[in-house]
Design a protein that fits this description.
It is a single chain. By secondary structure, the protein is α+β, with helices and mostly antiparallel strands.
Length: about 500
């Protein structure tokens, strides 16, 4: 989750206040018998007292609440948890800590590498496992794991990343998945209700409500000259972990991909920002179908117009976007666009900010035509521009990397001798001692550590390394076994997933 941004919904408090006020007002109009002051729900209609029906204003609020419930029940199963991890060198930590401090922290031995973990959200967009999310949720990850709402888990491969829009797509090997309905973000209006669905702060399947508080926001979180920022702004509570989750309208349709929060603390401070789904869809389909992003290219540099610039351009008020420079040989230059022109419209869309123009062009593909309405020397004109192609996006296709080691489970073992057990002050039954654990392997994922002593696989006693090898060779790929371990003379049980054959 990007820092700098978050939210609380003042509209929700206003709605609650209206609700309470209406209930009080209704109470003054009733007789004050104890029976009439009772409130109950008869299964169909909310009733106040024994005779008088609840006011229509309150029923309207109840209908809104029912709509939220209906939407949540249908969309929550389509939003997943995405867990990512990567290895980082402890040499990086030594820039900030001396080796003695690290040795004390890790108890005796400083590892060469550490696993850095993060989590976010994703939106299922196809029954066969394509999932829409944010670049920063999965970028640079050595392993990506997807957890469905029903707790099924899958390793995921990265289909593609587009850093200029923060859109990413991952894929799991699954079928018959529930799919989120995608809406039309161009029709979203400021003030309409939306729900944010995701997994903030490791609280899975969290739903918050708010409104669209602004559109086409540019907040400078994507550090690139050609970045496309035209976010939907909402006061529905979003926190770290919501990234990649769904922003949903009252039709139950996804209108945005939650991406960033406004914050000075790292947590919600009032506003969140989502990539409009129309932009995200275009990028997503390019990544899935072509393996790259085919982005329309206009070839202009722009400035926003304030009151001073408007007067210099002999305009009645600030409007449009000033063209600072037209790149030589660009589609804009070939169509006759000039520096000092002002773009008033792109097709039928009026524009007042440069990021609006960028977002509108980003939704187009090379070879498509757009009509620019231009202000030039005190008059308006229309110019047809055939968009070119930008060559800036390189897509990375990666599958999860899971080293398995000699056992296939990502660990090595030796038979535990009585002498070694005595040195360790181990008093339990002899088994095999874990001598190595492969980073990001199945054993590491399950929490197995060096010097753990394995005494059982499922219900089979393990007394030697040879018996251990024979036992794991009989395990079914894709199954899960229970290992009984001794750690510091305490018995624990570890659930270990047997990796499939490659």
């Amino acid at each position: 989750m990007f820092s700098g941004w978050s939210f609380r919904s003042s509209w929700l408090f206003l709605a609650i206040g209206v609700f309470v006020g209406l209930v009080i007002a209704a109470g003054f109009n009733l007789s004050h018998s104890p029976q009439d002051e009772r409130q109950f729900y008869d299964g169909t209609n909310l009733v106040l007292g024994s005779q008088q029906a609840i006011p229509q204003q309150i029923l309207a609020l109840k209908n809104t609440s029912d709509a939220f419930v209906y939407i949540a029940e249908r969309v929550v199963p389509t939003v997943v948890t995405i867990e990512s991890s990567r290895l980082i060198s402890t040499s990086e930590l030594q820039k900030f800590h001396d080796r003695d401090e690290l040795r004390d922290f890790f108890r005796f031995r400083v590892p060469d590498e550490l696993r850095q973990q993060g989590s976010g959200s994703g939106i299922i967009v196809s029954p066969d496992g394509f999932i829409l999310t944010n670049v920063h949720v999965v970028d640079k990850a050595d392993r990506v794991r997807v957890v469905l709402q029903d707790n099924r888990e899958y390793d995921a491969s990265i289909v593609g990343l587009d850093p200029l829009t923060e859109v990413a797509v991952v894929k799991i090997a699954a079928s018959d998945l529930p799919v989120a309905p995608l809406g039309n973000s161009d029709s979203v209006r400021v003030g309409e209700w939306v729900l944010a669905i995701g997994n903030p702060l490791e609280l899975r399947s969290t739903v918050t409500a708010g409104i669209i508080s602004a559109k086409e926001r540019e907040i400078d979180i994507i550090d690139d000259t050609y970045s496309v920022e035209s976010f939907l702004q909402t006061d529905a509570a979003i926190n770290p972990g919501n990234s990649g989750g769904a922003l949903v309208n009252l039709n139950g349709q996804v209108v945005g991909v939650n991406t960033a929060i406004a914050t000075e603390t790292g947590y919600s401070a009032g506003f969140g920002f989502a990539i409009p789904i129309n932009l995200a869809k275009k990028i997503m389909f390019d990544l899935i179908d072509k393996g790259r992003v085919d982005r329309g290219y206009l070839g202009i540099a722009m400035q926003n117009i304030d009151e001073k610039r408007a007067r210099a351009l002999s305009m009645d008020k600030p409007r449009g976007v000033f063209i600072d420079r037209v790149l030589r040989g660009s589609p804009a230059a070939e169509a006759g666009v000039r520096s000092k022109d002002v773009v008033l419209q792109v097709d039928t869309h009026q524009v007042t900010k440069s990021n609006q123009v960028q977002a509108l062009i980003a939704k187009k593909s090379p070879g498509e035509s757009v009509v620019l309405r231009i202000w030039r020397s005190g008059r308006e004109m229309d110019l047809d521009v055939v968009l070119g192609r930008r060559q800036e996006t390189i897509v990375t296709h990666r599958k999860p990397t899971r080293e398995r080691g000699p056992s296939g489970l990502g660990l090595t073992v030796e038979s535990l001798t009585r002498e070694r057990a005595s040195e360790m002050k181990y008093t339990g039954p002899l088994g095999v001692i874990v001598t190595g654990v492969v980073r990001l392997g199945p054993a590491d994922d399950s929490g197995i550590m060096e010097d753990d002593i394995i005494v059982e696989i499922d219900d089979t006693r393990i007394e030697s390394a040879h018996q251990f090898q024979e036992s794991i060779q009989r395990l079914e790929p894709g199954g899960v076994v229970i290992l009984t371990l001794s750690r510091f003379n305490e018995t624990i049980h570890v659930f270990l997933e047997v990796p499939p054959h490659e």
